Amino acid sequence: MVTRTVPAVLLLLLVAAGCANNASETGAAAPAPSSSASDVVDLPVPTAKTSGPAGEPGRPNAGAKTITGTVTAGVEPNCLLLTDDSGSHLLIFDDPAMRSDAAVGSKVKISGHAEPGMMSTCQQGVPFVVTAVEKG
Fold first, then answer.
1. Reduced to 3 states, what is the DSSP secondary structure of residue 33?
2. Where does this protein have compositionally biased stretches of type Low complexity (predicted)?
């Protein structure tokens, strides 16, 4: 019985020694920094810009175009689409106030430019940054 107890006690001591936190040892891992409200950083929200290269604000992008059609709802909430001969366009508004002029079912004429590389959760159409909306 003693022969079984000695290895068990030794194993227990080794495990306890391995778990001990001895900060005086060199190379000991530092404790993880605690998280606090001061660690939160507010990042700016990206917005669509219609300006050209740096130093030329207000110059429309080279791909500017006008599309006419009827606004339809996308499969995801808050996604608006406009379809023309070139395909389906996901409407991204440069100015959120313009969104009310492009309600689902309304006929509109929009101006803007395509942003095919823009990420979206809408899963439909090529993102089209709208810079102007005309009802009709």
1. coil
2. 28-38
Is 89 buried (19+), middle (13-18) or exposed (0-12) by CB count in 10 A?
buried
Strands 80-84 and 126-135, sheet pairing: unpaired
Q: d(Cα 75, Cα 72) in Å, to the nearest integer?
A: 10
Q: Which residues pair with 68 in a beta bridge?
A: 109
Burial, 132: exposed, middle or buried (Cβ in 10 Å; 0-12, 13-18, 19+)? middle
Domains of the chain as residue ranges with CATH: 64-135 (2.40.50.140)
Q: Assess contact for 101 and 65: CB atoms under 8 A.
A: no
Q: Can you read off the two tokens belonging to residue 58? A: 């207000």
- Residue pLDDT tens, the chain, 136 long: 556 776 777 676 667 777 766 555 555 566 665 555 556 656 555 555 444 443 344 444 568 999 999 999 999 999 999 988 889 999 999 898 999 999 999 999 999 999 999 999 999 999 999 999 999 7
- Burial call 90-102: b when 16+ CB within 10 Å, e when fewer: bbbbbeeebbebb
